[in-house]
Amino acid sequence: MSKAKSKNQKQRVGKSLDDTITKPRRTVADLREDWLLWYKICVLVYDLHNMAKDKTCERRLLQTTDELYISAPYFTDEEAVAIKAAHVDSSGTSLEDALTTNLQTFFDKRRASGDCRPCGPHDMVPVYLSSFGMEKMEVEDEKSVARVRRSGLRAG
Question: Per its UniProt entry, which superkingdom is the organism in (predicted)?
Answer without folding.
Answer: Eukaryota
